């Protein structure tokens, strides 16, 4: 039997052509715009999920915590810490991070140091916000029109109509009203 060299040579010629075609296709992928930017293909802005992790701590909450408090009291005021380490039992870490579309990401860390069961000190970041500052910082929605009014003034409260008093219920007799025959027969 004679070997068929024509088929073997066509395989040897097709392999470099196939390799060249695949290399060209793969190198074209490097010119695609990235999705990690602000827009995909320069046209569409993808929706990014808000990522909120940890404990939101404000200056009002932290002001209630005093050295000498027990671990249970600190947990009641600040919540459960995000990180407790078995190798550093005297330290609780309260971390907070928020990543939202339209605002800069925020990250804060409050560390509570204990001596046994008693709070020794709190390490606070310098930019710990008040509750109003925090709400203002994360509010990305613009209010349309006037800000809604949340409370009435004393003058407005007095101008409200007085609700009618409900009629008093009729006096009820206490106990069951029954009539019983006499115990002894009349003589």
Q: Helix and strand layout, with pairings?
A:
Elements: H1 5-29, E1 51-54, H2 59-63, H3 71-78, E2 83-85, E3 88-99, E4 106-115, E5 118-123, H4 131-138, H5 154-159
Antiparallel strand pairs: 1-3, 2-3, 3-4, 4-5
What's the gist of this structure?
This protein is an alpha+beta fold.
Largest sheet: 5 strands, antiparallel
Q: Structural class, judged by helices and strands? A: alpha+beta
Rg over CA atoms, rounded to whole Å, is 38 Å
CATH topology of the domain at 51-138: Beta-lactamase Inhibitory Protein, Chain:B, domain 1
Compute the number of strand runs: 5
How many helical elements? 5
The 3D shape can be described as elongated
- The CATH class of the domain at 51-138, by name, is Alpha Beta
Specify the helix fraction band.
25-40%
Summed over residues and divided by their number, the pLDDT gives a mean of 79
What's the helix-strand series?
HEHHEEEEHH
Please tell me the CATH architecture of the domain at 51-138 by its name.
Answer: 2-Layer Sandwich
- N→C terminal distance: 145 Å
Approximately what portion of the residues adopt beta-strand conformation?
A: 15-25%
Unreliably modeled segments: none
Keywords:
single chain, 187 residues, alpha+beta, Beta-lactamase Inhibitory Protein, Chain:B, domain 1, five-stranded antiparallel beta sheet, elongated
């Amino acid at each position: 039997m004679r070997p068929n060299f024509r088929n073997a040579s066509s395989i040897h010629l097709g392999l470099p052509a196939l390799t060249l075609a695949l290399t060209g296709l793969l190198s074209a992928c490097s010119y695609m715009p990235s999705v990690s930017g602000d827009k995909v293909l320069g046209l569409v802005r993808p929706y990014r999920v808000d990522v909120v992790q940890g404990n939101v701590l404000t200056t009002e909450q932290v002001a209630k915590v005093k050295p000498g408090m027990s671990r249970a009291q600190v947990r009641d005021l600040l919540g459960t810490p995000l990180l407790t380490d078995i190798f550093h039992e005297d330290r609780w870490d309260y971390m907070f991070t928020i990543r939202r579309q339209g605002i800069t990401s925020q990250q804060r860390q409050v560390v509570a140091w204990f001596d046994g069961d008693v709070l020794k000190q709190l390490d606070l970041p310098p930019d710990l916000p008040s509750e109003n500052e925090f709400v203002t910082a994360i509010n990305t929605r613009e209010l349309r029109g006037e800000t809604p009014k949340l409370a009435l003034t004393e003058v407005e409260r007095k101008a409200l109509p007085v609700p009618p008093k409900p009629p008093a219920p009729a006096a009820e007799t206490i106990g069951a009203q029954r009539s019983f025959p006499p115990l002894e027969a009349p003589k």
